[in-house]
Write a structure and sequence with these properties.
Layout (H helix, E strand, L loop, with lengths): L22 E7 H6 L9 H7 L7 E6 L5 H7 L17 E6 L2 E3 L7 H5 L3 E3 L3 E3 L3 E6 L5 H10 L1
Bound molecules: FE2/S2 (inorganic) cluster (FES).
FE2/S2 (inorganic) cluster binds next to loops.
Length: about 150
Amino acid sequence: MDIELPAVRSKAETVVDEDLPPSTVEYLNYRAIERNDWNIEDEDLFEKAADAGLDERDYGVMEVERDESLLRAADQAGLKWPFQCRSATCSMCVGVLKDGEAEMDMNLFLEDEEVEERNMRLTCVCAPVSDDLQIVFNAIHMPYARDIARNRG
Ligand code: FES
């Protein structure tokens, strides 16, 4: 019987150039999208967020080292991003990448399609690859994410 494992990329497959400067990460709270009646699919989502006068807990920019997880960087910045296991086995920390690239060094929860097509990332094990990226955090409140957490979890 073939067993299909979820998408996993080992650290060894990802070459981290330690000389690269930190990545600039623009973040947005999924709850702010709901409160403002925006849609996560909106092309101008981050432009609207930048103009909305949101609190820095909901929207802002932080620098993240290439070998640092997005969740850890958020912790260090004093932000309160949700998490539970910190080891890629739940989906409490899930975010949706809207621009740029960030890779997980392990993933024991998300299916390949959720990573590749829906751009979901477990922020506790996900480090930036591109110089700039945009991510919606607290995406566990998306209906789809809530469903998979309930059914898989
Ligand atoms: S906190 Fe559980 S997968 Fe990230």
